[in-house]
Design goal:
The protein is an alpha/beta fold. The chain folds into 2 domains: about 30-115, Leucine Dehydrogenase, chain A, domain 1 (Rossmann fold, 3-Layer(aba) Sandwich); about 140-260, NAD(P)-binding Rossmann-like Domain (Rossmann fold), CATH 3.40.50. It is about 40% helix and about 15% strand. The protein has 10 helices and 11 strands. Strands 1-11-8-7-5-6 form a 6-stranded parallel β-sheet. Strands 3-2-4 form a 3-stranded parallel β-sheet, sandwiched between helices. It has a two-stranded antiparallel ribbon with strand order 9-10. Helix 6 crosses helix 7 (about 170-180) and helix 6 packs across helix 10. It is globular. The N and C termini lie far apart (about 45 Å). About 40% of the residues are buried. The structure holds guanine. The site of guanine (GUN) has 7 residues, from strand 4. Guanine binds next to strand 4.
């Protein structure tokens, strides 16, 4: 039977710790402000943006937001980012993805100053992560490291399989696990004999976006299973990429969906906002 890794409780703890730090910084005259930009009105993005602003409020970080119309041109968006890059009062800039199809996401990500890139998506941030220099780390993978550490799960020397190779989760996740001295394999849709590769894993991190894809046949006895997926099943019920009920008895630790990895993303975004003032030499 598995221990359940409670992301809700751990993220609440992190937010409490951050609130203390934010208060200390405020007492020294250092305010932190995040700017969130949404283009268009995708309902899921609106929920994410609202939750990010609520998270800021909870820990005492100021936030400003721009809700721009779908018709916003790339040039207009890049101009706004340029203005925010030069605004001393703004410490973090986050452009909610996905963007409308007429806007090049890479051009937008690259326009954000790496000193304000609290999403950790800029190529400079990714490069810094790869070579172990200070910089912003993508929030979901950083949150998973916190989940493992705060659950006292040893990482060094362990076989870790990361299933999925996205720029936002799979790739930074694998680098972070390497930094923690795990032996890391990145598996993906073209991996031969995926089952036996996953079965090697002491720590299996799944981010493939397929409802309940991983069943007990992919799991080594006693493995730690981290499920990054957030999907809707045929009954519109939230579920992960892992078949939770099927693997539960085989693993030592598991993250539920919802309430596992999900709540960590905003906590780590807020953490990046606090780190931003250090990277900017303001604290
Ligand atoms: N869309 C879905 N997740 C994210 C995220 O972490 N950051 C941004 N900017 N957009 C997203």
């Amino acid at each position: 039977m598995a221990n359940i890794i409670d992301g809700k409780t751990i993220s609440a703890q992190i937010k409490e710790e951050l609130a203390v730090k934010v208060k200390e910084l405020k007492s020294k005259g250092v305010d932190i402000c995040l700017c969130v930009i949404q283009v268009g009105n995708d309902p899921a993005s609106s929920v994410y943006v609202k939750n990010k602003k609520k998270g800021c409020e909870l820990v005492g970080i100021d936030s400003v937001s721009y809700e721009l119309p779908e018709s916003t041109t790339q040039e207009e968006l890049l101009e706004l980012i340029e203005k925010l890059n030069n605004d001393e009062k703004i410490n973090g800039i986050l452009v909610q993805l996905p963007l409308p199809s007429h806007i090049d996401e890479n051009a937008v990500i690259e326009k954000i100053s790496p000193l304000k890139d609290v999403d950790g998506f800029h190529p400079v941030s990714v490069g810094n992560l790869c070579i172990g220099r200070p910089g912003f780390v993508s929030c979901t993978p950083a949150g998973i490291i916190e989940l493992l550490k705060r659950s006292n799960i040893d990482i060094a020397g362990k076989e870790c399989v990361v299933l999925g190779r996205s720029n936002i989760v799979g790739k930074p996740m694998s680098i972070l696990m390497l930094r923690q001295n795990a032996t890391v394999t990145i598996a993906h849709s073209k991996t031969a004999d995926l089952k036996s590769v996953c079965k090697r894993a002491d720590i299996l991190i799944v981010a493939i976006g397929k409802s309940r894809f991983i069943d007990s046949g992919y799991i080594k006895d006693g493995a730690v299973v981290i499920d990054v997926g957030i999907n809707r099943d045929e009954n519109n019920k939230l579920c992960g990429d892992v078949d939770y009920d099927d693997v539960f008895d085989k693993c030592s630790y598991i993250t539920p969906v919802p309430g596992g990895v999900g709540p960590m993303t905003i906590a780590m975004l807020l953490n990046n906002c606090v780190d931003s003032v250090v990277l900017q030499g303001k604290a």
